[in-house]
Amino acid sequence: MSQDQAASPQVELEEFEEAGEFDELEALRAERDEMRDKFMRALADAENSRKRADRDRKEAEMYGSTRLARDLLPVYDNLSRALQAIPEDSRAASAAFIEGVELTLRELSNVMSKHGITTITPAVGEMFDPQLHQAMFEAPLPGTKAGQIIQVMTEGFLLYDRLLRPAQVGVSSNTQ
């Protein structure tokens, strides 16, 4: 390689710069970098949209039946009340009817459980939890502490981890 050939690229670069094409090359590089940045942002935005749509789809799949579930709760309550209202002396005469109502209630419970609905059944003596219970009344009851459940009116229900309906309870208001 001769001396003239080695110096040739330097001479061409100077000619390139002199011709104003160097500024054009820099402008093209800046435009390329800007386009790359826009592309990366658009790619990230598309990925975020995909994740959001996936999360929304899963949430709709899990919680889409909330309205139907809430509409079924009175049916559950009425079947439970019907069983509780039967007097002891007529249970033997209505055994087949009672068994049918119990089977219907059990089947409803199984279907609800299959779809992520669980019951909240507080016991008398448990402490009141405002996240799960709704206080229907307060009364001073001897032998209890303030905040203890003294009566359960209706069970509550959860749909997976969301509250469908709080359990309705009576709470002790003792100051002891």
Question: Keywords, please?
Answer:
176 residues, alpha+beta, 3-stranded antiparallel β-sheet, 4 helices, 6 strands, 56% helix, elongated
Could you tell me the radius of gyration in angstroms?
36 Å
Strand order of the largest sheet: 1-4-5
Low-confidence segments, ≥5 residues, pLDDT <50? none
Can you write the helix and strand succession as a string?
A: HHHHEEEEEE
Q: Whole-number average pLDDT?
A: 88
N→C terminal distance: 104 Å
Assess the beta-strand content as a share of residues: 15-25%
- Number of beta strands: 6
Main sheet characteristics: 3 strands, antiparallel
Helical segment count? 4
Gross morphology is elongated
Determine the structural class based on helices, strands and strand pairing.
Answer: alpha+beta
The percentage helix is 55-70%
Task: Please tell me about this protein's structure.
The protein has about 180 residues and is an alpha+beta fold. About 55% of the residues lie in helices and about 20% in strands. The protein has helices at about 5-20, 20-65, 65-85, 95-115, and strands at about 115-120, 135-140, 150-155, 155-160, 160-165, 165-170. Strands 1-4-5 form a three-stranded antiparallel β-sheet. The mean pLDDT is about 90.
